[in-house]
Amino acid sequence: MHQSYSDFVMLAALLAARSSEVSGLQVGDVDYGKNLVVIRRQVFPGKGGLVTKPTKSRKERRVPILEPLRPVLERLTDGKEPEDSLLVGPKGGYLTTATVRDATNWDGIVAKLGLPDLTRHGLRHTGATWMADAGIPLHVLQDILGHASMETTRGYLHPDDRHLASAAEQANAFLSTAGQRKNARRSSPATRGL
């Protein structure tokens, strides 16, 4: 399988980007000095060929370069011109979500992994969830994802059972000390006269 397909998956997940935005990335969109990738455009199949347009929100957005993605970006940008496509398919053209789906037998692979509902767009949700789990504030995630509404951003976050169990532990710890805090208030000098 061509390396560009796994690069596509890494970029989509670790930038929490739409597939069409990954297709539209150029070498000059990677800013190592600021540790950012600037998402400026999307490329997708249309009538008569590929269409290049601004992002869905028509605004550029900046996404931090996560460390697991750095070596991939360094390999993809090395020795290339700023206007070159970041990802190039095995035949030298743009890599689109349809190309990735067909060339990798995406549906068959995710079915074998027991994840039949995982789509290429689902990688964007995965990346957003990872960033939220890492503690990135919701308003920052909203900017990274380019959402106009925080509610839309919330819809992208999917905590797994491990995180729900952790939330239960935190709540239980709080509740177990709540009784102690209540008793401490009753016997504190400030409340004795009540």
SSE layout and pairings?
Elements: H1 3-14, H2 19-24, E1 30-31, E2 36-39, E3 41-46, E4 49-54, E5 61-64, H3 70-77, H4 97-104, H5 106-112, H6 122-133, H7 138-145, H8 150-155, H9 161-186, H10 189-192
Antiparallel strand pairs: 1-2, 2-5, 3-4
Task: Describe the overall structure.
With 194 residues, the chain is mainly alpha-helical. The chain has helices at residues 3-14, 19-24, 70-77, 97-104, 106-112, 122-133, 138-145, 150-155, 161-186, 189-192; strands at 30-31, 36-39, 41-46, 49-54, 61-64. The strands form two sheets. A three-stranded antiparallel sheet has the order 1-2-5. A two-stranded antiparallel ribbon has the order 3-4. Helix 1 packs across helix 6. The mean pLDDT is 87. Keywords: DNA recombination.
The residue ranges in which pLDDT falls below 50 over 5 or more consecutive positions are none
What share of the residues does DSSP label as strand, in percent?
5-15%
C-alpha-based Rg, rounded: 22 Å
Q: How many distinct beta strands? A: 5
Question: What fold name stands as the CATH topology of the largest domain?
Answer: hpI Integrase, Chain A
Oligomer: single chain
The major pleated sheet works out as: 3 strands, antiparallel
Strand order of the largest sheet: 1-2-5
Structural class: mainly alpha
Q: What's the overall geometry?
A: elongated
End-to-end separation in angstroms reads 76 Å
